[in-house]
Design goal:
Blueprint (H helix, E strand, L loop, with lengths): L5 H5 L1 H4 L4 H16 L7 E5 L7 H14 L4 E5 L7 H4 L8 H6 L4 H4 L1 E2 L5 E4 L8 H5 L2 H11 L4 E5 L8 H6 L4 E7 L5 H13 L4 E7 L13 E4 L11
Parallel strand pairs: 1-5, 1-6, 2-4, 2-5, 6-7
Antiparallel strand pairs: 3-4, 7-8
Helix pairs in contact: 3-4
């Protein structure tokens, strides 16, 4: 059997739907449904404290399992610093999110079918010189509103919180935020600072995903665990 590539692991919910990792994502999907009982959680931003924490893979797999449940889902690559969703789904990135915002391109012309039923992708498009200004614009909020009129869920992949201000800007425009932290890599102080930056902009922190825990007995490198928000809006983590 050929060795699985990194990209195959990044879309494991689609490639290996019966795997323990895919099941963990379905658990995440279920927990998100409970967080939406009192507040809408249709637009969800996925970010992390630092690069290489795996937030893009989490965003992609979350979008996949939401679509597998019969929801109409669009995954938007809002990481205008280092976009990777086009690589994960192995599609072109010559036209996408930035074309819609900057050049007023039609969203329908930029959206790509992923091959997963009910799941569309809006890649980043050409990387602009001023990402923060673009994300803070009225055009951005209008685009999100337009997408929410067409899809059940809008999942956005944002840059790391501690590197640039982009994720904090986007966090104010969505229903909730998932913070991805990497096992044995993300320091506690980094996770706390990332959480504090979200709280400072009054973002709704849905919870945290502990990523890339090695579970050798299952034979997979990645495992994901979700900490659900408690009634007093404090996240049940050690952040």
């Amino acid at each position: 059997m050929a060795k699985k590539t990194q990209r195959e692991y990044e879309l494991i919910s689609s490639k290996s739907p019966k795997s323990p990792v895919a099941e963990a994502f379905r658990t995440l999907r279920t927990n998100l449904a409970f967080t939406g009982m009192d507040h809408s959680s249709r637009s969800i931003l996925v970010t992390s404290p630092s690069p290489e924490d795996g937030k893009s893979a989490v965003a992609a797999n979350l979008a996949v399992v939401l679509a597998q449940a019969g929801n109409r889902v669009i995954l938007v690559d809002c990481d205008l610093r280092k976009p990777v969703q086009h690589k994960i789904f192995q599609v072109a990135n010559d036209r996408g999110f930035t074309n819609c915002l900057v050049q007023a391109a039609e969203i329908e012309e930029a959206v790509i079918k992923t091959g997963v039923d009910n799941l569309d992708l809006l890649t980043s498009g050409p990387v602009p010189p001023n990402p923060a200004e673009i994300l803070a614009s009225k055009h951005m909020s209008n685009l999100l509103e337009h997408l929410l009129g067409k899809y059940d869920y809008v999942i956005t992949d944002a840059p790391p919180l501690l590197a640039v201000t982009d994720a904090a800007i986007l966090a104010t425009q969505v229903d909730g935020v998932i913070l991805v932290v990497r096992s044995a890599n993300t320091r506690i102080d980094q996770a706390r600072e990332a959480k504090n930056r979200l709280l400072k902009v009054n973002a709704r922190l849905l919870g945290a995903v502990l990523n890339q825990v090695k579970v050798n007995s299952y034979g997979y490198q990645y495992y994901y665990y979700y900490y659900q928000e408690s009634d007093d809006n404090e996240v049940k983590t050690r952040l």
